[in-house]
Every structure is written in C-alpha cells, then in structure tokens.
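Why Carboxypeptidase? Reviewers of the renewal asked for a concrete example.
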Amino acid sequence: MYSLQWKTMVMITVALLHLFLFMEVVDSFPSTSDKINGLPGQPHVTFQQYSGYVILDETNQRALFYYFVEAEIDPVSKPLVLWLNGGPGCSSLGVGAFSENGPFRPSGQVLVRNEHSWNREANMLYLEAPVGVGFSYSTQIETVDDKITARDNLLFLQRWFDKFPQYKQRELFITGESYAGHYIPQLAELIIQSNKKKMLFNLKGIALGNPVLEFSTDFNSRAEYFWSHGLISDSTYNVFTASCNYSRYVSEYYRGSVSPLCSRVMSQEVTKSIDVCIEDETVNYLNRRDVQKALHARLVGVNKWGVCSNILDYDVLNVEIPTINVVGSIVKAGIPVLVYSGDQDSVIPLTGSRKLVHGLAKELGLNTTAPYRVWFEGKQVGGWTQVYGNILSFATIRGAAHEAPFSQPERSLVLFKAFLEGRPLPEAF
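Here is what the prediction returned.
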C-alpha cells in the first residue's frame, strides 16, 4: 500500500514537472495567434513573420497594429529594431515595411523579395502609430500629440514584450524618418527614464533619418537647397529668405491664417516638395481582404487602409517644439545617436540636419573623433560622415531622397549595418 502511494506521488510529481517544462517552452516562443502562415502572393522564405494588435486600453478600445519579421539568418543572435515612419500619421507598414526596408514589395498580385531588406541584419518591428494610423484604431476620436504618442509607444513595447518574452533582453535599436525625429527621441527619453526605475529595455542606439529636429532650421534650409540645386533664381531665393520663409509659411498654414504676403511668396516656388509617392500597388495590396486576414488586421472606423491617416486628429503645432535638445539628453545618457540624410532630400535637407548635429556636439562639448570624410558602398561613394565623441554621428546617403531606403536601398543597408555593429562606415572599396 505504501509502495503504491509512493509510486503514485512520484508519477504525479513527474507529470507536474513535465507540464511545468512544457509551459516554460511554450512561454519562450512568440504568440502563435499572431503568426503569419503566409502572405498572399509571397515567395518562399525561411524567416518567421508575425502581425496583430497590442491593446493599449480595453475600456476605450485603443490598439496599435504591428508587423514583425525575424532576421533571415540566426534571429536569436540579431538585435531587435523598432521602425517608425513620420507624417505625423503615415504608416510604418505601408511605407517602411512594404515600400522601403521590409522583406517584400507588392508587384501586381504578388510580393517580390527586397534584396536589401533590413531583416538581413536585424529582427524588424514595424509599428503603425499613433492610434488612427493604418490598421491601428481607437473607437473614440481624440486629439493626439507628441506626449501621448510617446506614452503609447512605450506601453506598446512593454506589452509587445509580453507577447515575445524572448526579446526582452535583446539589444534594442529604434530608427525611422521624418516626423519620427519627434517620435523616436521622445520614446527613447521615456525608455531611459523607465529604466532608472526598473531595467526593462536594453536600448543600444537610435538612428534618425531625414528627421524634423528643429522646426525653423529644418524647414528654412529648403530655400538654400532649391537655390543650390539651381531650381530657383537669386531673386526668388532672396524673397524666400527675406520676405516669408518656409517656417513662417508652415506656421501660418497650420493656424489656418496664411498672410497675403506668404501666399504670394510661396506661389513663386517652381518645384513642389513632396515625399516619395507610395505606389498604388501597396495601397491595393493592403486593402485586399485575403491580405488583411493573413495579417490579422481589421478596419475600424475607416472604409479602407490608407498610407497616411485622414481621420487622425494630431496637434500639428507640436512640429514647432524642438527635439534636438531631447537628442542631447539621450547622448548624455550614453546612448549612441546617428542622424542621416539623403543628399537629394528637399523636404528636410541635409544642410539643416548637419548644422543641428554640429551645434549639438559643440553644446555638449564633444570633440570630432572622425573628421568629415567620404564613405563607400562597394566601389561607389555612399556618402559623407562625421563623428563626435564616438557617440554622436552624422552621415549623408548619396543619391537618396526623403525616404532613403526606398531611393537608395543598397547604401541605406550598408549604413544600417554599420550603425548596428557600432563601427565606422566603410572608408574604402
């Protein structure tokens, strides 16, 4: 009798141990409900893909949509990179993932491989933020601003790590472009503050592509760009800089009160500056029912997915709040920062970004540790770069426009790889 009871207890103990070990193993894998079995028209790949929602507020029905692609080779050894597009209100899924540096690009009814996808070097996480962008939603229309976006993005990361616990201690990098020059520094600042209470994020660096960092400097550098490229006359340049500059015009436009003077001056602009046009194929692809089903996505409050949201109520005056000082606080915290610019970008020209980075380095007392020099992609000049204090860097990408990975994918990938590895850009071919 005693022997039977003992055997029974041993069997129960072993069964419980096996159950515990099974639960541990299951816990170490990503959320299976978010796993993508295959996107319509997708070529065969060996890496895993996931997409779905992270609920921010169940009561008020607020959720952010993400698309996550693991690294092509050995994802366990590769860092995690969060990518954010700007706008404010433009989609990291449609722009970043499916038009710039993701693994696929729509072509007719199918997807083709992007040979210069950034998931060759990292596990890439694309976030449609803030709520109201793309497939992200809120059932209550509300005004969103930079602080709300930063707070929501932090909460997203915390809850995304609950879905993917094996990435919690992974090296984390944050990158993106344009108005993400506001999103990324403010999110990084919250991460640094959060880590002082409890170390939750292994933040290793941020990279800001063609970013809005200081409203007046960034926008007013456009007149110089147009003039230096021979797109406007001397007299028009003088009018743009003396009578009504770009920052004044944008400020008046956002306030709904463009003065007759600024209206008259801006009518002289011969070249309209716009972002790279997102192909209709991307819009058509992401609006297919079978694609949305494969992505575990749904439309809430909108009839179709759009590249940039037309329902988002964003406090656009936030653009006038400088974030270059926030970048400075990140550098002071010991986090490496890279600012890169496509040298053919007329939206946020490199001249403004270069001036801001140089000014920040001077303010922080950072000496030049790598003088301004050329860097190479293969046998071609990839751009130019300068490093301050081995922690703050500026680089140009030759031939790239506002969305650098779209217009110069090979050079952008070289720059991205060097950034992740913390090494200088190639000095020779």
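Residues 12-29 have pLDDT under 50 and may be disordered. This is the kind of structural detail the renewal will allow us to pursue systematically.
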